[in-house]
Amino acid sequence: MVPLSWYLIFAAALFSIGLFGVLARRNAVAILLGIELMLNAVNINLAAFWRYGDVLNMTGQVFAIIVFAVAAAEVSVGLALVISVYRRRNTVVADEIDMMKW
Amino acid sequence: MQTTTLIWLIPLFPVLAFALIVLFTNRVNWLSHTIAVGAAFISWLLSMIVFFRALGVENLGRNPFEDSIPWFPVGDTWFHIGVLIDPLSAAVLFFVAWTVLMIFIYSVGYHNYGQPKGDHDHKGLPPHGATVDEHGHKHVVLSIEPMYSRFFAFIGLFAFGMYLLVVSDNLLTLFVGWEIMGLCSYLLIGFWFAKPSARDAAVKAFMTTRIGDVFMLLGISLLYYQTGTLTYREIFTEETLHRLATTPSGFLTFSVAGLIGLLLFIGTIGKSAQFPLHVWLPDAMEGPTPVSAMIHAATMVSAGVYAVARMFPLTSLDPQTMQIIAFIGGFTAIFAATIAVAQNDIKRVLAYSTISQLGFMIAALGVGAYVAAVFHLITHAFFKALLFLGSGSVIHGMEHGVLHTGDHKVDPQDMFNMGGLRKKMPITFWTFLIGGLALSGFPLLTAGFWSKDEIFAEAFGHGHIFVFLTLAAAAFLTAFYTMRQITLTFLGKPRTQEAEHAQETPWTMTTPLIILSVFAVSYGWAGISEHFPLLGGLLPNWVHEFVGSTLLEMPEAVEFSWIPLLTSLVVALGGLTLGYFVYRNVNSPAEDRLQIPLLKNKYYFDEAYNFLFVKPAYWFAENVVYKFMDQKVIDGVLHLFGPGTFSIGYAIRNYFDLPVINRGIGDGSYKATWWVMKIVRPIQTGRVQQYLLFALATFAIVGVALYFWLA
């Protein structure tokens, strides 16, 4: 069986890619994509720990499913916000959406 | 019902009537007088039941009706109040109940119930009359009293005070009743408060009696201090009395008993209008006539004599106090009688006669004639209530005449404006005549003769010749001025148009007169001495047996002597005859040779008191209290305080409030916040990715720090 560390390294890589996407991409939709990547990296971790830990204890799997549900909800709200912002300001560039300052 | 329960209930009804009238029915005249007269009737009924039950008790003096409840705690014990009906209070209750009920009924007529409202009557003034249209022409009739209900409320409260005083078994509730009557007398004398004279008279009566009341309260306090109780039956035990009589009080040579008796007697001097506090009573005639009858004949002034009689076992222990009492009584009797001779106001004559007769009773108590004093108290209450109500009836009739002629300058109370009323007001005349004869002591028939004769016999029998002679002279004057009054008022021909048109008063006024005149005659028969020639022993001497049994030792009846009896006959008949013949043809004050300025002006007592007490009091109030104390001292201190407080306030404001609170804390907190804002503002760019980068950086730093520090 593939050792646990592989999964962890893979998840870490995926998380870093997501984090980079969130911090570096200018497009708001792309930032949302980055968030999705990070969430899925967490899911991989959860699944891997479950598989290599106490298999009979379903906590890891259940937690991963909850994260899916939350991610789905989050992305739908996020996309709705992006569309709303686009309609008002005609842009989806994150740096240009800077009304929330003093 | 148990007799004690009934006794508790006696004072209750008049005070209930007072509350009901004041709170609810004061706009409904017929309801107010129904409630008041009803309450007086119930109290009368209860009093009669109690009285007749008391008659049936064997040796009531030893076994009185008594009942008490604890009232308030004093130290380890309780102060008890209760009711007591012994022979003395039973006898007093009898005449109080009768006279109060009669006066209540009389008031209905006196205040013109059933007459129309006055044309221009004001509250606080006597009614002026109303114009009515009858048989096509207008004429003026008497109008109803504008404050009709209020009058009945007040006399209800007054009756409560008197009943309370009579049934109470201790000096404290007696004093409470005493003070309630003092208040009511103030309210009722000043009933027509818009008249300045009535207002002044009310204040005068209140202030004068107050002087006596203060001493009385001192006496009560001393008694309580010495014995620890105010209940009569606990004080009048042989050992307590003996102890009080043998303890010196430290005041001159009085024993404690004598001093207490003296202090309580000063209360009586005020209440029963004895010299030198007699000045209020004649002025009190400013009140409505039922009030004069109620306060100045039947009840309140009797209360003073009752109090002395009540404390007689204590007072009689000290001969000095007794001498003072006898002296004051005797002096007042003759002194007031001389003034009464020169008065022209029908009510004032009676007022001075009341003072004089009260002097008789006080003098009788002073010479130890306990039974005679109580006997005269009772008979006097009946005939003096009768005379006052009769005089009210006369005035009422005269007012009718005044309204008929329309000449309001004619004084309906001046006897020289009357004359010949015998034909116009027959019921009033005959009842007034009976009352007058009783007052003069007309032999054998009238109650006044028997009681006065008893006083003479006792004074003579106990060797108080000086008191005896004084009282005999006073009795002569009494008969004289009474006949003068009757002659001027009722006999001869009408001297004015008003007297010509006087009219008999309604039945509500005449019925009480008739009932009271029955007592003014018949009550004397209850106290005929056994030693009296011919008549003695025909009827049992009930008064002596019954009232005398109040005392621990039944007083001995004095030996019969012809001297007091003959004196009594001579002064009564002589005074009456002389009065008739002197005043038969007198038609104006100018023809009256007894209008001596000294007597007319009551020995200038009002002027003297005005100069000695009233003026100095005003001077003191004006110059010392107002100008010096108030304006200089009090205002001066206030004027110091004003600027002082102002500068303290100024300092606090300028040196603390403005710099520290306002500029320091108030402005400082705002400035500090502003300054922090200036520093932190640049990092708030609004760019979400920048925030994330900050968060990441922080996370990384904290993570690394934790890693190194914790590991």
Overview of the structural elements:
The complex is a heterodimer of chains A (102) and B (711). Chain A has helices spanning 4-24, 28-52, 59-89. Chain A has 102 residues and is an all-alpha fold. Chain A has a single domain, classed as Orthogonal Bundle (Helix Hairpins). The mean pLDDT of chain A is 89. Helix content of chain B is 69%, strand content 4%. Chain B is built from 28 helices and four strands. In chain B, strand 1 and strand 2 form a beta hairpin. The N and C termini of chain B lie far apart (102 Å). The model of chain B has no long low-confidence stretch (mean pLDDT 86).
The chain pair with the largest interface is: A-B, 13 and 10 residues
Rg value of chain B: 36 Å
Shape of chain A: elongated
Tell me the helix content of chain A.
over 70%
What's the number of extended β-strand segments of chain A? 0
Keywords:
heterodimer; A: Helix Hairpins; about 75% helix; about 0% strand; B: about 700 residues; 2 domains; two-stranded antiparallel sheet; two-stranded antiparallel ribbon; about 70% helix
